[in-house]
Design a protein that fits this description.
heterodimer; A: 441 residues; alpha/beta; Immunoglobulin-like; Rossmann fold; 3 domains; six-stranded mixed β-sheet; elongated; B: 434 residues; seven-stranded mixed β-sheet; 15 helices
C-alpha cells in the first residue's frame, strides 16, 4: 500500500469545493471521494507479488570500475504493471539509479539495468527487489519486496599495475633482450652468438671464436668472426608470498588498509615474477589459510589471485606465526624467496614473527614488506606547539620502535623493505629485481 | 572487467519469497495494538463523560467536578432538598426566579464578563443574593460602600465575629479568594456586618440589597469550591448561606452575557475556515503517508572493522603531556635527531653519541659542550623549555643538512629497512658494470 503525490494533490484540490460550499459535509464528501478513487485505483493495479524476476549481469567488477546488473521483470498478469522498481543492493555496491520507472505490458518481460560502481572490495550483495505497482490513475499503488539475492565479486583494484611496464623494461635489460649483455653472478649461460659492435669485450668467448673460424686458411687470413657468450638471469626460481591478514592488517593507513597494500604488493610482485619466469605462490594467512594460489602461471595467475583476494577481510586475531614455516614448507621444497607482508611496529607485537624467522632464513631468502605510516613522519616533524611536541616525541618513539624491530629482523637474516602504502608495491618489486640482478634467488 | 552473463539469482519458475506482509497479515499482526488503542480511547471518553472533568475547569460551575468547580456543593444541596436551577446567562437566571421571597441567587463572575449595569439588574431580585468573589463592578453596582480588599491565599480564619448563624456554626473557614474592605461603610451610613475579618478585609460581608432582601458578599470564594469545601467549616458556611431558602438559582456568568450576543468565537470567522483546516490537516497526513512509505526495507551491510594506526601514538603523546614526562619526551626527540644526524653524516649504526657530537661539532663549527647539553644533558624544567629545546634540535638537524648538502634527505625520509638495494637504478647498474 502506498499513495502517490497525485493523491496528495487530489486531496489538496478539495480546497475549492470546501471554500465554495463552506460546510463540514463538503470536507467529508471530498475526502470520501478521494479515498474511493484511491481504493478503485488500488484494486485496478497489477499485483507486484505475481511478478517473476530474474537476474543477470557482471559476475566480477574491478574496484573503481563499473559493472552492470540486469534485472528481468516478467508480468504474468493480465494488467499492465507500471510503477517503480528498486533493486536493493548494499550501499557500498554503489548502485545507480536507486529506483527506476517500470512499465511491463501484460505477459511481457522488461529489463531493468543498474550500474554498479562499488567502492569496497569483496562480495557485494543484492538483498531484494521492491516493486510498487500503481493503478491506472496513478493515485495509489501496491508494493511488495521480493527476496532476490544477487552477488557481484569486487576484485582488488591493482592500482600498482602502472608500475609494471617500467619494472618489465628493467627485467628485459637483465634478460639479455637488449644489447646490454653483462655477465654477472647468478646468471646462467644462455647461448653463443656473433659479436656486434657495442657488446662488452669481456664477454667474448675466445675458444668458441677459434673453433668457429677454424684456423688460418691457405689463402691468407679469413675474416675473423668473434663469438660472444650471452647470459640470462636465472629462471624457474620460486617466490612465496605470505600475506598477514591478522588484526594488524585491519589498520588503515592513508585511506588504505594494510591488507589492501599487501594485496597490491602481491599482485605487482606476482605479475613481475611470472614474466621473469619464476613460479609464484601466494597465501593469505592469519590463524588459518584464508586463501592460497599455487601453481598458476600467466594470465591465469593474476585472475586466480584477484579472485582469491576479493572476499578476504582482516580477522581480529593475532597471527599465528609459528605455523608459517610449515606453510612455506608445504608450498615449496626448494630454496625460495619468501616475502612476508606484515607490519613491523612494536617489539611486543612482532615477537611471534621474530621467533619464527630463523626457521625460514635457514633455508630461504626472506623479505619482510612492511607498511610505514606517513602520519608518523609528519607528526614527528611538527613541533609547532606544546601538544604537537609531545605528539612528535611519541611519533619518534614509535619510529624508533619500528627501527628496532627492523634491525632485529635483519639480524635474524631477513631483509626488510618498508615504505608508505603507495610506495610499497614498487619497492617490493624493485627489491625483487635487485635480488634477481644479484642472483640471490 | 566484465564476466560472462550468469544468472546468480533464483531460477525464474521458483516461488518467489515476498518479504512484505499482505494486508490481511499486517492487520492480524496489529490487531492487539489496534484493540488496545481503541479500548483506551473508549475508556478516556467514558471518564470524561462521567466525571465531567476537563483540562481547563470552569470556576464555580455547578457541573464541574474539578477542584475549582462547585459540583460537590450543588449535589449536597440537591440531596438536602434544595431545588437548584443552574443558569448560564443573566436572563436565564432572572427567568429562573419564580418566587423571589423563597429563592437564593448565587451569582459569580470569575472571568469578569459582567458590567455594572448587568449587576444592577440583580439588585433586589430575590430574598437572598450571594455574590461570590465580587468584582469591583459588582461592588459598585450592588454595594458601593464596600471596597475590594487584598487577595488571600491559604489563610485560615477562626473567628466568625458576626451574628449570621451559618457563620457561627462554621466556626472557622479557609479564606482563599478575595477579601472585602468594609471600612468605608460607616461613613456612607450603610448597615454592614463583617464575618471572618482579618488582615486586608473580611471573608464575608452581610448587608441589605438596595431593592430589598439580604445581600451576602462572599469574598472567600474557596468556600464553595470542590477542592476546599471539605476544609475547616467551609461546608457548613456554604450550606448555611445557600440552603437558606428552598430554591437556589446558581448563576455563573458566561460568554453569553457579553453584550452583542456573540456566544462563541467561531461566529467571528467565515464558515469554511473549520472545514478548510480539517482538509489541510488531511492533506498533511496524506503527504506524510506519501513521503513516509519507503520503497522496501533498508539493506544491511557488514562493514569491516577499521583501526586507526596512530591511536597508540596519540595515546602515548597524551600520556606524556598529562604526566608532564618532559625529559622522556625530549629524550625520544633527541634519539630521533641523533639517528638522523648519524645517517646524514654517514656514521653508520655503530657510531656512539660522542662520535656523533664530534662529527656535528666539526660540521657546524659549534662547541661540543653546547651540543652535548642540547643533545644529552639539559633537562627541561617546563613545557616552554621543552618546546624551545625541540626547536633547537630541528634547527641543528637543518643546519647539518645544509652543511652536508643533503637537503631533503633528512626530511621525512626515514626508512627503517633502508639497505643498499634501495636505489635500484644506480645500484644494479653499478653491480652490472663490475
Amino acid at each position: 500500500m502506498a499513495v502517490t503525490g497525485w493523491f496528495v494533490g487530489l486531496v489538496a484540490a478539495g480546497v475549492v469545493p470546501v471554500v465554495l460550499i463552506a460546510n463540514g459535509w463538503a470536507y467529508l464528501g471530498w475526502v470520501g471521494f478521494c479515498v474511493v478513487l484511491a481504493v478503485v485505483d488500488l484494486a485496478l493495479a497489477a499485483s507486484p507479488r505475481a511478478a517473476v524476476l530474474e537476474r543477470s549481469g557482471d559476475e566480477r567488477v574491478r574496484l573503481t570500475e563499473s559493472g552492470r546488473a540486469t534485472l528481468y521483470v516478467t508480468n504474468p498478469s493480465r494488467r499492465t504493471l507500471r510503477g517503480i522498481v528498486r533493486d536493493a543492493w548494499e550501499p557500498s555496491a554503489g548502485a545507480t539509479p536507486r529506483r527506476q520507472r517500470l512499465l511491463v505490458p501484460p505477459g511481457e518481460r522488461r529489463a531493468v539495468t543498474t550500474t554498479l560502481t562499488p567502492w569496497r572490495r569483496g562480495e557485494r550483495r543484492a538483498a531484494m527487489v521492491t516493486i510498487r505497482a500503481l493503478g491506472p490513475m496513478r493515485l495509489a499503488g501496491r508494493q511488495a519486496s521480493i527476496l532476490m539475492p544477487g552477488t557481484v565479486r569486487v576484485l582488488p583494484e591493482f592500482a600498482s599495475r602502472r608500475h609494471l611496464p617500467s619494472r618489465l623494461a628493467h627485467l628485459r635489460e637483465l634478460d639479455g633482450r637488449t644489447s646490454l649483455m653483462v655477465r654477472g653472478q647468478g646468471t646462467e649461460f644462455d647461448s653463443l652468438r656473433e659479436y656486434v659492435r657495442g657488446d662488452d669485450v669481456r664477454s667474448i668467448d675466445w675458444r668458441a671464436t677459434a673453433r668457429r673460424s677454424g684456423g688460418p686458411g691457405p689463402g691468407g687470413a679469413p675474416a675473423q668472426t668473434l663469438m660472444v657468450r650471452t647470459w640470462r638471469p636465472e629462471r624457474d626460481r620460486h617466490v612465496v608470498m605470505i600475506v598477514d591478514s591478522g588484526r594488524t592488517a585491519a589498520a588503515r593507513i592513508a585511506d588504505e588498509t594494510r591488507i589492501d597494500t599487501a594485496f597490491e604488493s602481491a599482485l605487482l610482485l606476482s605479475a613481475l615474477a611470472d614474466r621473469a619466469g619464476d613460479r609464484v605462490d601466494v597465501a593469505v594467512y592469519d590463524r588459518r589459510v584464508r586463501g592460497r594460489v599455487q601453481g598458476a602461471r600467466g594470465a591465469d595467475l593474476l585472475a586466480k589471485l584477484v579472485d582469491m583476494m576479493a572476499p578476504i577481510d582482516p580477522e581480529l586475531l593475532e597471527t599465528d606465526w609459528s605455523a608459517v614455516p610449515g606453510l612455506v614448507r608445504s608450498m615449496t621444497a626448494q630454496r625460495a624467496l619468501v616475502v612476508l607482508a606484515t607490519p613491523l611496529e612494536s617489539p611486543g607485537a612482532t615477537r611471534g614473527l621474530l621467533a619464527m624467522l630463523p626457521q625460514l632464513t635457514r633455508r630461504h631468502l626472506v623479505l619482510v614488506a612492511a607498511v610505514t605510516d606517513p602520519a608518523l613522519l609528519s607528526a614527528a616533524n611538527d613541533r609547532s606547539d606544546r601538544a604537537s611536541v609531545y605528539r612528535a616525541a611519541a611519533a619518534e618513539r614509535a619510529l624508533l620502535d619500528a627501527q628496532r624491530v627492523a634491525a632485529a629482523v635483519q639480524r635474524l637474516g631477513a631483509d626488510v623493505v618498508s615504505a608508505a602504502p603507495l610506495d610499497l608495491p614498487p619497492a617490493v618489486a624493485d627489491r625483487y629485481l635487485a635480488y634477481k640482478a644479484a642472483g640471490r634467488l | 572487467m566484465s564476466g560472462a552473463a550468469v544468472v546468480t539469482g533464483a531460477p525464474a519458475d521458483a516461488r518467489a519469497v515476498v518479504v512484505t506482509p499482505t494486508v490481511r497479515r499486517s492487520l492480524r499482526r496489529s490487531l492487539f495494538w489496534t484493540a488496545l488503542a481503541a479500548l483506551l480511547l473508549v475508556f478516556a471518553g467514558v471518564m470524561v463523560v462521567t466525571t465531567g472533568a476537563t483540562a481547563d475547569a470552569d470556576r464555580f460551575a455547578a457541573d464541574e467536578a474539578a477542584p475549582l468547580g462547585s459540583r460537590a456543593l450543588v449535589e449536597v444541596l440537591r440531596d438536602a432538598g434544595v431545588e437548584v436551577a443552574v443558569a448560564d446567562s443573566l436572563d436565564a437566571a432572572l427567568d429562573a426566579i419564580d418566587e423571589p421571597g423563597a429563592t437564593t441567587v448565587l451569582a459569580a463572575d470569575p472571568r469578569g464578563l459582567l458590567t455594572s449595569d448587568q449587576w444592577q439588574r440583580l439588585d433586589g431580585v430575590a430574598a437572598s443574593l450571594v455574590v461570590v468573589e465580587p468584582s469591583a463592578g459588582a461592588l459598585a453596582a450592588l454595594a458601593p460602600a464596600i471596597a475590594p480588599g487584598v487577595p488571600v491565599v491559604g489563610e485560615v480564619r477562626t473567628a466568625a465575629g458576626c451574628s449570621l448563624p451559618a457563620a457561627r456554626r462554621a466556626g472557622s473557614i479557609t479564606a482563599d479568594g478575595a477579601s472585602l474592605d468594609a471600612s468605608g461603610a460607616a461613613a456612607a451610613e450603610v448597615e454592614t456586618e463583617e464575618c471572618f475579618a482579618g488582615e486586608g478585609g473580611a471573608g464575608l460581608v452581610l448587608l441589605d440589597q438596595a431593592g430589598g432582601g439580604a445581600l451576602r458578599l462572599l469574598g472567600a470564594g474557596g468556600v464553595v469550591e470542590n477542592g476546599l469545601i471539605g476544609r475547616q467549616g467551609n461546608a457548613a458556611l456554604a450550606l448555611g448561606l445557600l440552603g437558606e431558602h428552598p430554591r437556589l438559582v446558581w448563576y455563573v456568568a458566561t460568554a453569553a452575557d457579553i453584550p452583542g450576543g456573540l456566544s462563541s468565537p467561531s461566529q467571528l470567522y467565515p464558515g469554511w475556515v473549520n472545514p478548510l483546516t480539517w482538509l489541510l490537516i488531511t492533506v498533511g497526513v496524506a503527504a506524510a503517508f506519501w513521503r513516509g512509505r519507503r520503497l522496501g526495507p533498508v539493506v544491511i551491510e557488514n562493514l569491516p572493522v577499521v583501526v586507526r594506526t596512530t591511536e597508540t601514538m596519540e595515546g602515548r603523546a597524551r600520556l606524556y603531556a598529562r604526566s608532564g614526562a618532559r625529559l622522556r619526551a625530549l629524550d625520544a626527540l633527541r634519539v630521533g635527531t641523533l639517528r638522523r644526524l648519524a645517517g646524514g653524516l654517514a656514521l653508520g649504526s655503530a657510531a656512539g653519541v660522542d662520535d656523533i657530537i664530534s662529527a656535528v661539532a666539526v660540521v657546524t663549527a659549534r662547541d661540543r659542550a653546547g651540543l652535548r647539553a642540547l643533545l644529552i644533558d639539559r633537562e627541561p624544567r617546563d613545557d616552554g623549555e621543552l618546546v624551545r629545546l625541540s626547536d633547537d634540535l630541528i634547527e641543528l638537524e637543518r643546519l647539518v643538512q645544509r652543511r652536508v648538502g643533503l637537503d631533503g634527505r633528512l626530511d621525512g625520509d626515514i626508512d627503517p629497512g633502508a639497505t643498499p638495494g634501495r636505489a635500484i637504478g644506480t645500484d644494479t647498474t653499478r653491480r652490472m658494470e663490475r
